[in-house]
Automatic annotation (TrEMBL):
<protein>
    <submittedName>
        <fullName>FMN-binding domain-containing protein</fullName>
    </submittedName>
</protein>
<dbReference type="GO" id="GO:0010181">
    <property type="term" value="F:FMN binding"/>
</dbReference>
<feature type="region of interest" description="Disordered">
    <location>
        <begin position="34"/>
        <end position="76"/>
    </location>
</feature>
<feature type="compositionally biased region" description="Polar residues">
    <location>
        <begin position="34"/>
        <end position="43"/>
    </location>
</feature>
<dbReference type="GO" id="GO:0016020">
    <property type="term" value="C:membrane"/>
</dbReference>
<dbReference type="InterPro" id="IPR007329">
    <property type="entry name" value="FMN-bd"/>
</dbReference>
<dbReference type="Pfam" id="PF04205">
    <property type="entry name" value="FMN_bind"/>
</dbReference>
<feature type="domain" description="FMN-binding">
    <location>
        <begin position="84"/>
        <end position="160"/>
    </location>
</feature>
<feature type="compositionally biased region" description="Low complexity">
    <location>
        <begin position="44"/>
        <end position="67"/>
    </location>
</feature>
Length: 165
């Protein structure tokens, strides 16, 4: 009985740690971007129906994506972003304040994932470089890969934004 209670407590603490990590990696950077955006343009981040931001197919507002003017030059390795089939980890190179190269360091390569990723990752890379942000349209049939790619890319972009000179 005591072992079961201990296991439950350990599982609870581990779950809370995962939630806290996710908050720090994905939510907090967006909150700081939102507050700085509202401070610089005098508009509330929530905005209203006349807000000029547009939404893409994955539900992210383009106002949430990073401005290329704030990217600091360097090479940034993201955290490995998990999906149902494995993890995706990217290395992003920024030069002249623009994303110039996105290299996939880690991606699921077993079973069907290999063929899905062979098609989806180059397309996602091209879309991200063209958009200069993680606010890109997902690849049809590769939702899990697209989600993990965007999360990993946003982490690298956040590192670039937060990098000291």
């Amino acid at each position: 009985m005591k072992a079961n209670v201990t296991r439950a407590l350990v599982a609870l603490v581990a779950g809370l740690a995962v939630v806290a990590d996710a908050f720090l990696l994905f939510v907090k950077p967006h909150l700081s971007q939102q507050s700085s955006a509202s401070n610089t343009n005098g508009q509330s981040w929530a905005g209203n129906s006349s807000d000029s931001s547009s939404s893409n197919s994955n539900g992210n507002s383009s106002a949430e994506s990073s401005s290329t003017a704030t990217l600091k030059d360097g090479t940034y390795t993201s955290v490995a972003s998990p999906n149902a089939y494995g993890e995706i980890q990217l290395q992003v190179t920024v030069a002249g304040g623009k994303i110039t190269t996105i290299t996939t360091l880690q991606a699921p390569s077993h079973g069907r994932s290999q063929s899905v990723n062979a098609q989806a990752l180059p397309e996602l890379t091209n879309r991200a470089i063209a958009a200069q942000s993680a606010d890109i349209q997902f690849v049809s049939g590769a939702t899990e890969t697209s989600t993990a790619f965007v999360n990993s890319l946003q982490d690298a972009i956040n590192q670039s934004i937060n990098a000291s000179n």
